[in-house]
Amino acid sequence: MGIAKGSHRDLESVRVASPAQSGAVRRVGATARSGWSTGDFVGRRAELQALGGELDETRLGALRVVLIEGPAGIGKTSLVERFLEGQADLWILRAEADELESSVPSSIMDQLLRSASVDRNAQVKHDAVNDHVAIGSCLLEAVAADRARPLAIVVDNAHLADRSSMDTLLWAMRRLRGERVLVLLVTRDHDADAIPESLRRMAAGFSGVSVQLGGLDVDELIEMGAGLLSRHAAVALRDHTGGNPLYVSSLLQEISADAWSDTERALPAPKRVRADIGRALASCTADARALAEATAVLDMSGPLHVISDLARVAEPLRAVAELWNVRVLELERSHGSRSVRFADPLIRAAVYQQIAPARQASLHLAAAKLETEPSRALRHRFEAAHGPDPGLAAKLESVAQRAARQGAWADAASDLLRAARLSRERGLAEQRLLTSVQCMLYSGETARAQTFAPEIAAFAPSPLRDAVLGHLTLREHPRQSAGLLEDAWRRRGEATDPSIAATVALDNAIRELLALRGEPALTWSTRVIELAGPDDPIGAQGRGTQGLALAHLGQVAEALSVLDHWLALPSAAGPNGMPMRVFRGWLRFVSDDLSGARIDLTEAASAALQVGSPAMGVLALSHLARVEFAAGAWDQSAEYAAEAAAVRDRCEGLPTAPFVLWAAILVEAARGDQPALRELARAAANTQPGTAVQVIVTALAKAHAAQGLGDHHAVLDALVPLLDPGTDRSVDVPGLWPWTGLYAEALIALERFEEASAFMEPHEELASRSDRCSVTARLARLRGQVEAGRGNEETAYAAFFTALTLFERAARPYELGQARLALGQLLRRRGKRRDAAMHLNLARQIFAELRAIPALEQTEVELSACGRVRTRGAGVNGEALTPRERAVAALVAAGKTNREVATELVVSVKTVEVHLTRIYAKLGLSSRSQLIVHARSHEQLTADIPPPPL
């Protein structure tokens, strides 16, 4: 059982730290920090900034209410303490609720008043001690007695507070609206309903903010582990704990240092969770315990009738009710059938750990007999095995080979790894492990594959061993990698399996392609196709690399023809043709076939997420984001970029991760979201590319971010690696790596017109020989700006009109708007205001629809200069919601959480958060409660949305 057991099957549910959202609801994860010690929680930058903003409002004389929500151990109290440190001018009244005092009237108010040195009983008559008006008046008098300092009222564990205290606090707060008072209510999100609705409305309204804490992200966990965690282990730990600092620090203390390198080890639950679950199960009947154990053996969830059969429980609903009461299991109903699930992976781990080993084995064997899917049955038999089993190993290998033929590389890797561990013969075990790691590399699980490098290095030299090590060292040690791959090819005849030669050739093709060496990549790809069998998935990979090699040689049309031919064959149907479909989608986009690119990339992304191929999934989603950006569907582009970000952690070491940053930056830069753009720019600056492809994509991401931030010198600096004479000039193939427009535009913005003209000339010549009208149009617009800057107005006119014609043909609205803006500027400066206004109004309409704020404001400045009144921001916030946004709005308005909405719509939580950000912006709202009120008064918001299934 591996550390990331089953994680590759549900790529869309990968947890990521959520960025701060606009409006009154902020969902924020931890930010990078230094000096982390195990068990210590350091205050988070984004949350501290949010609280600091509320305190600034308080100091101006406004009551502010902050509701800080999150699960136990996420760091709510630590955040508040860190925030209050150093606030010398702040008068702080504290209270902490406790379960033992939740029924004691006014216990919280008593703590607050004592904190203010007020004896409640001395000022309130004995018969009025439970009167919230009388007690609240004591608090008001205390506040009035010290108006020199702003006041902070802190109530920790507010969900456990007695109701009379909360009523009193609410009464007092209504009378403190004009006072300098900051109220911090700390509560667990699962118990947030215990907070009175009136207080929640104040926090969600214009007088407050709700801060919902998320877990640590993968990079933060690596930092917290202080060298203990590989990236693969950090991903597994994040999935296991949700990034909860309390549970993470517990496991880092409880698990030995050498155990973190064992990728087959199942992560346990922390001791405190095991103890809690142990007490909960001890309070249940034998049937309930048996049902919980059966669910744990079947992993996180399962159909109730199957689980009850496995547990041999006659009355499962009664057992589920017991487990629900102690918060161990949840019951779900969908399409008329019932299923049960653990609310958290830690609960499942705690239950599983408390099952005796002999009973674990017997339950797994029984589960194998009930399982209808052969591969899952074999995996249960593997869990029940207690030593080498050559027969079971052979069956697992056969299942893995079938998965590989279907393109399910991650499944194939896991089954081959199991087969290797059950193999008695050393040579067979090594070959199965090597093939498993090869599948991990093809699936994009590079971080996981890297953990096996020390073990593989100890194997006897062989073609497959050298090829795998060559691939593993490709990024960190390129010279060593080249030598290993060349050795593997020279010794290919030593391999007993003929397919190994094709595998070695493919690894060499990938190496050359990542180095942007087109000719050798094409040679190796041809060898792959010649050596692979007709149904060998390695052949499909080789055909994809053959297409990309041709494209990097400038033969894009020929590359598309080759890919069209292979994809028309029956063997390319389904996931097996996924790599070729991704690459054809990319090249169709390069060739301005946006609809064809969208079809290919959508199908490829769906197949990748279905079979568990994160590398291809990230690549397809990132290219889809670029396609939709070009087509003007920016909301969809942002959604695809967010989906790509949700799986990028599993692609460390491959060229796919920088593509995510590039895709994510496009919309943020064009819309002028400066905070988000600065975060992305920091991420791009911290990226350390290894291969030539990574260097290019990282440079593009940095340049787009710098352009969005208005730093034209930084754009030029970012693109310096692409000017290096040693760089393969395949980077200049028109449209393949669109960097030339960025570089020329930065020169133009800096008024270096002669330099820009000289730079553009060879690229204009290349574009004229291609059939890529978007590239020609982009260069024509830039040529117009150069000539306008040089004073050659007639030449500039001609260039601008060429750009307009070609952008309309290529259906690229944003760039069409940029061309109209540039032409309008030239006409306005020539005194042709009527003609200028026509083009500027058309540009303004495009920018308003896209919500391209910087370009919109620049256009309005020009219109104002033409004699038009500027209407800043008009048209930006009143658009109708898209169908998907209406669906999200309807479900949120119905009271569902983001995770429930994600499950309902079969998307990630990150996607739901992106949609909510847009919904708030479009409707002019700032919180969930405002959205609910808006939905009730605007029935069209939920029109055409089908009711959720019962």
If you had to describe this structure to a student in words, what would you say it looks like?
The chain is mainly alpha-helical and 950 residues long. Helices cover 62% and strands 5% of the residues. It has 48 helices and 9 strands. The strands form 2 sheets. It has a 6-stranded parallel β-sheet, sandwiched between helices. A 3-stranded antiparallel β-sheet has the order 7-9-8. The two termini are 35 Å apart.
Topology:
Elements: E1 25-28, H1 45-59, E2 64-70, H2 76-84, E3 91-96, H3 107-115, H4 120-123, H5 132-145, E4 151-156, H6 163-174, E5 181-188, H7 197-204, E6 208-213, H8 218-225, H9 231-241, H10 245-254, H11 271-282, H12 286-297, E7 301-303, H13 304-311, H14 316-325, E8 329-334, E9 337-342, H15 345-353, H16 357-370, H17 374-384, H18 390-405, H19 409-422, H20 426-443, H21 446-450, H22 453-457, H23 463-472, H24 478-490, H25 499-514, H26 518-531, H27 537-552, H28 556-567, H29 578-590, H30 594-611, H31 614-631, H32 634-645, H33 656-671, H34 674-685, H35 692-708, H36 712-718, H37 720-723, H38 740-749, H39 753-768, H40 773-790, H41 793-810, H42 813-829, H43 833-850, H44 853-865, H45 883-893, H46 898-905, H47 909-923, H48 928-937
Parallel strand pairs: 1-6, 2-5, 2-6, 3-4, 4-5
Antiparallel strand pairs: 7-9, 8-9
